[in-house]
Amino acid sequence: MNTTGQQRKFNKIILLILEIILLFYAITLIYPFVWMLINSLKSNKEFFQDIWSLPEQWAWKNYADAWESARIGRFFFNSIWMTAVGTFTSVMSAAMPAYVLAKYKFKGSNAVYGLAIVGFLIPSIGTFGPWYMLMQQLSLFNPAGVLIGYTGGIGFYMLVLYSFFKGISWEYAEAAFMDGAGHFRVFFSIMLPLVRGGLVAVATFALIGIWNDYFQPLILLQSEHQYTIAVGLSYLVEAQKYSADYTVLFAAMWIAVLPILLVYMVMQEKLINGFTMGGIKG
Amino acid sequence: MKSHDIGTFRSFFEYWERVDAMKGLLTKKGLFIAVMLAWPLIHYAVFGLYLQVQTLLYSFQSWNPLTGRQTWTGFYNYITAFRSMNSDGVWTSAIFNTVLFIPVNILAVALALVIAILLYHKVPLARFYRIVYFFPALISIVVITMVFSFALNPTQGIVNGLLDAVGLEQFKRAWLGDPQTALISIFVFCIWAGIGGSNVILTGALQRIPHDYFEVGKLEGIGFWKELFYIIMPLLWPTLSTLIIVSTSGAFSIFLQVMLLTNGGPFTSSTTVGLEMYRLVIEKNDYGMASAYGIIFTVIGFVIVWCVKWLTERFDTAEY
């Protein structure tokens, strides 16, 4: 009896230590953002005097400066339209193969499904040189090139949507066929609305992924008026190393994070569920 | 007849029944499938297959840096590449660091598993933690690396500021600018920012385990470790092994984190294979060498990934 009592006490202490570690880890993730928010509202001079203090006067001007003179506003709008177009096209190009693989029997359907798996296992950085040359030859060093990159279709999103389509009864389609609807009609007006949950989850991931994407826009966008917010921000970080106007940089960073933060606040339940349903199992 | 055969037979039968009912749709069906698959397949053919083949072809060619003329040079690129791997400090460091990222990534998965189990057992604030931990996976790598490097900033950073505050000034340093700590700081970053994604996937897998398994374990009075190794690990193994494989292959393509945090420096102390290949293309326009390295590391990566896959399949898994 005594030993189990001790055991229980010991377990309680261990559990307490673990809880403290969990809390500490959460703080290390949150605090730097809060710290940046506080410092984005100070004047640069104030920031250099004391990095811990609260702002004496809230310098909202930093946000205006970031938006206009640092051109974050321009980058923001570039990101918005590219994210909107990219999310739609990337989800559609995943939904189309997912649907025919899940609902139609044809030769080679397993092979197409297999391609998606193989894609995961081969690191893509190896083909960077030829990719760079190909994009030059196709003159795709522009937003169109970036958007085409998002329409891969055969990949993770396809696997997610595949499992959603699998779960839907074919009888809905049968009925529509009897009424004389064609395959495209059935796909667009019956099957797609039925997998709304899956589409929302995948679209949210695509949206966040494209908004945040850095690599493709960095390489393919050549002139400043095309930059997305991630690329613009990275150049701003470089520039601030010399001008040391840090508080404006913090403001710019918050402008970039805010949309994602809002989407996450609203969608977190769906997002986390979408991720867990992703059929990542063996 | 096995049940499997009956299944195929039945679907075959249903198929013909359907064909009978809608004869006119048969050719339209083929057209529909073709249209739906056309773009994804073209994209895969160009950006998947074609680029892989091109990489192989390019690896046997050289580019004149001034005129841009291509010439076939046989195995010259490969010989140069293998020489550089044991004599050129840049590449020895890059390879060494890249290999170290495999255990670091796997450590992140292991920590994500421990956290997922803790949160599953209804630690207070579990929902809040899950949301917070996932956040780094959702924001741009530009922002998260910037936040991290600002925390480590030698003069205005939180970490050195805290060390000052608690009187440990002797540990203050330029974390990312010091050859001794640059690489370790990047490892810490990858774990700090990388736990959330795996954590969410593992949480989902844990929630799919029928609750009875844990109940039985509790009745038997087994402890944490027994529960971990006899209940959770076998049931989660399919998910866990997938994550391990993905993080192994992920180690070979790590370079954005490094580029944004230290740009491989100071000197070559924190560079990786991915970053050096990127530089060959962007800075030197040396597509031939970049492709040769690309092929070499794709092959090495593939072999290592298959070894890890083979190893993970040695363990027993349970069906549920």
TrEMBL record, chain A:
Q: Signal peptide span per the entry?
A: none
The membrane topology term of the UniProt record is:
Multi-pass membrane protein
Check the record and name the Pfam families matching this protein: BPD_transp_1
- Give the main location: membrane
Q: Locate the transmembrane regions by residue number.
A: 12-38, 80-100, 112-132, 144-165, 186-211, 246-267
Any idea which UniProt keywords this protein has? Answer: Cell membrane, Membrane, Transmembrane, Transmembrane helix, Transport
Q: Where in the cell is it found?
A: Cell membrane
Query: Known PROSITE patterns for this protein?
Result: ABC_TM1 (PS50928)
Q: Spell out the SUPFAM superfamilies in the cross-references.
A: MetI-like (SSF161098)
Q: Which family does it belong to?
A: Belongs to the binding-protein-dependent transport system permease family.
Q: Where is the ABC transmembrane type-1 domain?
A: 76-267
The answer to keyword Hydrolase applying to this record is: no
What is the name listed in the Swiss-Prot or TrEMBL entry for this protein?
Carbohydrate ABC transporter permease
What InterPro entries does UniProt report for this protein, alphabetically?
MetI-like (IPR000515), MetI-like_sf (IPR035906)
TrEMBL record, chain B:
**Protein keywords:** Cell membrane, Membrane, Transmembrane, Transmembrane helix, Transport
Places the protein is found: Cell membrane
Q: Where is the ABC transmembrane type-1 domain?
A: 94-308
Q: How does it sit in the membrane?
A: Multi-pass membrane protein
Q: Which Gene3D superfamilies match?
A: MetI-like
Which InterPro entries does the entry mention? ABC_transporter_permease, MetI-like, MetI-like_sf
Main location group:
membrane
Keyword Lipoprotein carried by entry: no
Q: Which spans of this chain does the record mark as coiled coil? A: none
SUPFAM superfamilies cross-referenced by the UniProt entry:
MetI-like (SSF161098)
Q: Which residues cross the membrane?
A: 31-53, 94-119, 131-152, 182-207, 228-256, 287-308
Q: Which domain of life is it from?
A: Bacteria
The UniProt family comment states: Belongs to the binding-protein-dependent transport system permease family.
Q: What is this protein called?
A: Carbohydrate ABC transporter permease
